[in-house]
Design goal:
Butyryl-Coa Dehydrogenase, subunit A, domain 1, Butyryl-CoA Dehydrogenase, subunit A, domain 3, four-stranded antiparallel β-sheet, binds flavin-adenine dinucleotide
Amino acid sequence: MDFALTEEQMMLKTNVRNFLEKEIVPVVDEHEKQGPLTKEAAVGFFQRLMPFGYLVGFLPEQYGGGALDHKTNGILIEELARAWGSLAGTLFLAAGFWWLLTEAGTPEQKERLLPLAASGDYIGCLAITESNVGSDVAGVETTAILDGDKYIVNGTKTWISNGSIADAAFVLATTDKTQGPLAMCFLLIEKETSPFCTRELHKLGLRSFPTAELSFNDCPVPKENLLDPGSGYQRTMAFFDVSRAMVGATSTGIAQAAIDASIKYAQDRTQFGRPIGSFQMIQEMLVDMIAETEAGRLLSFRALDLLDKGEKCRWQSSLAKAYTTEAAVRTTSKAIQIHGAMGLSDEYPVERYFRDARTLTIPDGTTQMQKLIVGRDALGIRAFT
Ligand SMILES: Cc1cc2nc3c(=O)[nH]c(=O)nc-3n(C[C@H](O)[C@H](O)[C@H](O)COP(=O)(O)OP(=O)(O)OC[C@H]3O[C@@H](n4cnc5c(N)ncnc54)[C@H](O)[C@@H]3O)c2cc1C
């Protein structure tokens, strides 16, 4: 098992970190206080980051990408999350739209939309969750009923990343509720031609990362916007194989930021006439934080490495997501402890790191669902269907 970084990847990591420290970190607090990014702000950040390979770097060259592998994307996302968790989420989910289009879009859809990817100003989202459908993805209730040359879509999606700033959504719907996952499909719903309503949702962490409810009321969608009939459930699971490993990389970045801030604080802050970093219990907390973050990083990169090799990685991605997100909660909590009362103040970033890390144990499947996936693989027994 060898997934050491190449010289090129190490150079990219250093260059990106330097850029983010200088250009992005100074504006994070101001944006987090304002709440969800506007489309204009998100696009502005995307366009500044794209020269490093962000957003479309994984696309083929003909669409402005550089065919970057999953590990390189993981490095980019980890570094961005170290600087700003919300922007890492916004950007990764915007890339997820292009990923699904590349994987499952019709030739016509690809030809029409993929050239827009390189501009950075066309944003898409993936709408799976509903108020009655969270962990149990197979229970999707949103319907798409064929009527002449259109599907009529009815339903409400919730907690959709980038939903409020999206130009288009891939919406998971059923064409026949009696058929379960077999009738589930993604529809490409473009807001300009098939309007839908959105409502922004406030959340504990990742406050600049837009998350919204999307309502479809007799929404007409051209028949040809249905992707690969019957493949919606499998496509969702394939997306999760990538996204869970990437949430692992995101959590690693947030945890690394908490470690870096804690080291600095422990060196600077004195009590009893000595830096608090000289106390063994502070050192123990820091070492626990480093150990868990290193372990999470390795789990995430192992899953990304399997993806690069085209191998199955379902339980490995789930393990990376479950372990790394929960470890990041523990790490960022310890960072608050090391900062004492200042750790609770928004004058220091660690309270944000904690809120952001805590938020990531839920999306792309909760910790419990990830554990049931790993358990299913280990035991050969399903705890859920
Ligand atoms: C920041 C953020 C971004 C998101 N982005 C998107 C997005 O872009 N697109 C999208 O479609 N969705 C998105 N979601 C929704 C997310 O995927 C769901 O919230 C998640 O799958 C959990 O569903 P739920 O919230 O309905 O919880 P529920 O499924 O209701 O779970 C509630 C609790 O019950 C537990 N539970 C449920 N079933 C079992 C079981 N069988 N065994 C043991 N425990 C169980 C869960 O672990 C959890 O603790 C996002 C959510 C967040 C917070």
